[in-house]
Amino acid sequence: MREQRALLTLTLHTDEPVELGDFVGAFTSLANEFDRFVGAEYPDARSDPKMYVKEVRHGSIEADIFTGIQAITPIAMASIDQIMLLEDFVKRWGERFKAILTGSYSKDELQSSSELKDWADTAKAIASDPIASHSLEAAYFEDGKREIRASFKFTAPEARTALQNIEDRKKALAKPDHHAHERVLMIFTRSDVNDADVGKSSGERVKIEELSDKSLSIMYGSEVAEARIKHEIRDADENVYKKGFVVDVIVKLRSGKPIAYSITNVHDVLDLPD
User: Fold this and answer.
1) At CA 211, angle to CA 210 and CA 214, rounded to 5?
2) pTM for this one?
3) Residue 181 belongs to what H/E stretch?
4) 10-residue averages of pLDDT along the chain (274 residues)
5) Which of 60, 190, 230, 254 counts the most CB atoms within 10 A of its CB?
6) CA–CA dist 246, 101 (Å, integer)
């Protein structure tokens, strides 16, 4: 093992045995978050964390994590103060956990399923234990003495709250958002003469270049809008694919990406140039 004067120490204080998969998850989630941190803050460096179980005794599992920081060039490596890096990581890691615990993170954070899984794995190891706790420390060794430079600890009740908030976040990301747009040009790529219930997918597809370069499904947000469009499909002399519809739409989003349009109003119908 290469000597490293600064390291992270993960300690699980438990009253009940920890399932092996949950313990491994607590470590791998921490390693993944550390990789994200290094990649964002130190683009000229990379990490290769290794965990060594230091002590297992009744009520406690302690593991040292050697971060394996490497830099692309010797100059870049010389500019990295490892203990400051680890101090900063522990502080930010703790702040992010507290944000999950209180729901105070911004809407732009915690967007990816892999990141949400890592934070869930962080909490699982102690969540079912009535009195357990999870602690992370950044430690520095000088002349054989261990000095703790930063630490963060959370308890089993906090872990359960965090898991519930993570589950709520997953549901929120899976639920379509809604963005309204007025007077956009819509062109049919697939039509249907049959009626559709308001708020239900019609089976038709359209393209609105202002909003997406893809053809998306539509639904009708009002009976009036549906009647106007169906008239053009069924009764008008011109082919509907040669017409443009100036409409108000609500864009249905999932994870920030358009998945469907709800047409709420039709302002005009235009003949498209050949």
Assistant:
1) 105
2) 0.64
3) strand 177-190
4) 72 87 90 88 79 82 81 55 89 95 83 90 92 93 88 97 93 76 93 66 87 91 88 82 93 83 93 85
5) 230
6) 46
